[in-house]
Amino acid sequence: MSALTVYPDNAPNNGNTYLDFSDIQAQLEPLNVRFERWSAGFALPDDADQDAILQAYRQPIDRLQKEYGFQSVDVIGMSPNHPEKAALRQKFLSEHIHDDFEVRFFIEGRGLFSLHVDDKVYCILCEQGDLISVPAGAKHWFDMGKNPNFRCIRLFTTPDGWVANFTGSNISEQFPSFDDYVQQIE
Ligand SMILES: CSCCC(=O)/C(O)=C/O
Ligand SMILES: [Fe+2]
Ligand code: NI
């Protein structure tokens, strides 16, 4: 189930949670965050490589590339038994920004995006089929959890792919981790 909790950025215990998809969209729209449910209706084998995944999702990727002029695309994923899971998780855990506008499409599994906009934090649990955009310059972090299980298509408006500028803030440590958030809403 997709979910959103909106917190004051100084009150991580005082959030409002939205579970209805259109309520989530309505909360995110003023931030220029696009949140959509796409059909991820392909049963891809676990060992499908990046090319096979991009081929399977050619049509929706082409549509997005035309709409936004994306210049690069990749597939990122993690599984619970991957030896590098802790290192990859750590990479996205601290607050950062990107200079470019980005889109993420969860073809499998789930993960927690948290956006810090003005004086609020928006924790968004994305699941299979969810498409989320992160506006250029929006402060955010991403937690895949202790036992990550997801695959995601990422579209970038620069040819360089994923480039992050870390803000130096430790705010992400004060807000729910993926595992705590899932426990809270389930
Ligand atoms: C869910 S895609 C992996 C994380 C990522 O690309 C990103 O930009 C996190 O902030
Ligand atoms: Fe990002
Ligand atoms: Ni990021």
From TrEMBL:
<comment type="subunit">
    <text>Monomer.</text>
</comment>
<protein>
    <recommendedName>
        <fullName>Acireductone dioxygenase</fullName>
        <ecNumber>1.13.11.54</ecNumber>
        <ecNumber>1.13.11.53</ecNumber>
    </recommendedName>
</protein>
<dbReference type="GO" id="GO:0019284">
    <property type="term" value="P:L-methionine salvage from S-adenosylmethionine"/>
</dbReference>
<dbReference type="GO" id="GO:0005506">
    <property type="term" value="F:iron ion binding"/>
</dbReference>
<dbReference type="InterPro" id="IPR004313">
    <property type="entry name" value="ARD"/>
</dbReference>
<feature type="binding site">
    <location>
        <position position="96"/>
    </location>
    <ligand>
        <name>Ni(2+)</name>
    </ligand>
</feature>
<keyword id="KW-0028">Amino-acid biosynthesis</keyword>
<comment type="function">
    <text>Catalyzes 2 different reactions between oxygene and the acireductone 1,2-dihydroxy-3-keto-5-methylthiopentene (DHK-MTPene) depending upon the metal bound in the active site. Fe-containing acireductone dioxygenase (Fe-ARD) produces formate and 2-keto-4-methylthiobutyrate (KMTB), the alpha-ketoacid precursor of methionine in the methionine recycle pathway. Ni-containing acireductone dioxygenase (Ni-ARD) produces methylthiopropionate, carbon monoxide and formate, and does not lie on the methionine recycle pathway.</text>
</comment>
<feature type="binding site">
    <location>
        <position position="96"/>
    </location>
    <ligand>
        <name>Fe(2+)</name>
    </ligand>
</feature>
<dbReference type="Pfam" id="PF03079">
    <property type="entry name" value="ARD"/>
</dbReference>
<dbReference type="GO" id="GO:0010309">
    <property type="term" value="F:acireductone dioxygenase [iron(II)-requiring] activity"/>
</dbReference>
<keyword id="KW-0479">Metal-binding</keyword>
<feature type="binding site">
    <location>
        <position position="98"/>
    </location>
    <ligand>
        <name>Ni(2+)</name>
    </ligand>
</feature>
<keyword id="KW-0408">Iron</keyword>
<feature type="binding site">
    <location>
        <position position="98"/>
    </location>
    <ligand>
        <name>Fe(2+)</name>
    </ligand>
</feature>
<feature type="binding site">
    <location>
        <position position="140"/>
    </location>
    <ligand>
        <name>Fe(2+)</name>
    </ligand>
</feature>
<feature type="binding site">
    <location>
        <position position="102"/>
    </location>
    <ligand>
        <name>Fe(2+)</name>
    </ligand>
</feature>
<keyword id="KW-0486">Methionine biosynthesis</keyword>
<dbReference type="GO" id="GO:0016151">
    <property type="term" value="F:nickel cation binding"/>
</dbReference>
<feature type="site" description="Important to generate the dianion">
    <location>
        <position position="104"/>
    </location>
</feature>
<dbReference type="GO" id="GO:0010308">
    <property type="term" value="F:acireductone dioxygenase (Ni2+-requiring) activity"/>
</dbReference>
<feature type="binding site">
    <location>
        <position position="140"/>
    </location>
    <ligand>
        <name>Ni(2+)</name>
    </ligand>
</feature>
<comment type="similarity">
    <text>Belongs to the acireductone dioxygenase (ARD) family.</text>
</comment>
<feature type="binding site">
    <location>
        <position position="102"/>
    </location>
    <ligand>
        <name>Ni(2+)</name>
    </ligand>
</feature>
<keyword id="KW-0560">Oxidoreductase</keyword>
<dbReference type="InterPro" id="IPR011051">
    <property type="entry name" value="RmlC_Cupin_sf"/>
</dbReference>
<dbReference type="InterPro" id="IPR023956">
    <property type="entry name" value="ARD_bac"/>
</dbReference>
<keyword id="KW-0533">Nickel</keyword>
<feature type="site" description="May play a role in metal incorporation in vivo">
    <location>
        <position position="95"/>
    </location>
</feature>
<dbReference type="InterPro" id="IPR014710">
    <property type="entry name" value="RmlC-like_jellyroll"/>
</dbReference>
<keyword id="KW-0223">Dioxygenase</keyword>
<comment type="pathway">
    <text>Amino-acid biosynthesis; L-methionine biosynthesis via salvage pathway; L-methionine from S-methyl-5-thio-alpha-D-ribose 1-phosphate: step 5/6.</text>
</comment>
<dbReference type="GO" id="GO:0019509">
    <property type="term" value="P:L-methionine salvage from methylthioadenosine"/>
</dbReference>
